[in-house]
Amino acid sequence: MRGLPGLLAFAALIATPAAAQLSPAEQVIVETVEAHHEADIALLERLVNQNSGTHNHAGVKAVADMLAPEFEALGFEVEWIDQSAAGRAGHLFARHEGKPSTTRMLLIGHLDTVFEPSSPFQTFVREGDRGIGPGAEDMKGGDVVILAALRAMKAAGTLQDANIVVAMTGDEEDAGDPLDAARADLIAAGEWADVALGFEALAKIDGRDMSSVARRSSNSWQLEATGKTGHSSGIFQEQVGYGAVYEMARILDAFRRKLPEENLTFNVGFMAGGTPAEVGEDGLSASTVGKTNIIPSKAVAKGDLRTLTQEQTDRIVAAMQAIVDQNLPGTDATISFDFRYPAMAPTQGNRDLLAKLNAINADLGLERMEEFPPSRRGAADISFVAPLVGAALAGMGADGAGGHAEGEYVDLPSMIRQAQRAAILMSRLSQEPRD
């Protein structure tokens, strides 16, 4: 039995693939991220403590001003892109020119949060491995992961060959108007890039890290139904018809019965019906008046539409329009759509990129990352560029929970493995020729 401890130690050594396939430069990346972790947490705390609700333009710019010197110290050319014409603060872009004719990479983050200055949730608090604060998970933790990865690449000497654009939008939580103007610079960067990496929060299932090769769209619709009004005793009669509310009910129930399919949702956010009924100027409310003995003349409703591909979007929009057009007697209806965030469809290129990331996971001794169900994630800025690049992955940021609510937190140790994964992936991509 005397030799058993040594045998067990040898068995453990050969069974552990951690760092087994890492190059010397990649080992430097691993060590640099770990060594700089506490400084990264300190930066995260400063970012979180600066309110940057989307409509706090000065706060969004202040976060950009904190991040800009960090990128400049790594040799990036930094640009602030004013978005006042779109009613928003602006975007921070950082660019690094590397070896010609190699993979061009676009890293996507955002500066804003959902927490405006009026929110009581304003301060970073560290509790063990959790960093609690507004935007800690969505997505200031991811912004710090970007910097941690690039800093480690710099230390390892792999940044010098890398062609990278970092795009941090200032209005991801509430995009500016017109949307084409608000996303023009991001789309231009997507047209330049070969690969896009989105650094919003890491997805997990049952404690296991997952990767997002797809994200659904986020669009909205508005429905209006009209009918002949009059005394309620005449409803359903040929000369009067069914009224606006029954027409609205017919349409929404037909949506429920006829449209459902995989990866599709269509929520009804609010509705109203009466004589009259109107959507509020803010687009977020509705008002109505009426009496029980009056047939309602108008009904309104607004909702969202989430799809996995553009083909699915086009097909469902056509199906919704066909349902709307089948009016009850004495009624009419119209539907309009506001297309905001497109879908990031699952592609072979995305899955090939995940395979490269999983090779890195094996080299780091980490578990294989499976695909996260797209129905469980919302829309994101990466969707604007995913159709333009050869490959895209989302969820490259830090793990956490509670996003968009008081108590939101980031899992601080997750920042280490996410920065290591990203830095090694970018280092390897930087040596690949463009297709």
TrEMBL record:
Residues 1-20 form the signal peptide. InterPro entries: Bact_exopeptidase_dim_dom, Peptidase_M20, Peptidase_M20_dimer, Peptidase_M20A. It comes from the Bacteria. Pfam families: M20_dimer, Peptidase_M20. Keywords: Hydrolase, Metal-binding, Signal. Residues 213-330 form the Peptidase M20 dimerisation domain. This is M20/M25/M40 family metallo-hydrolase.
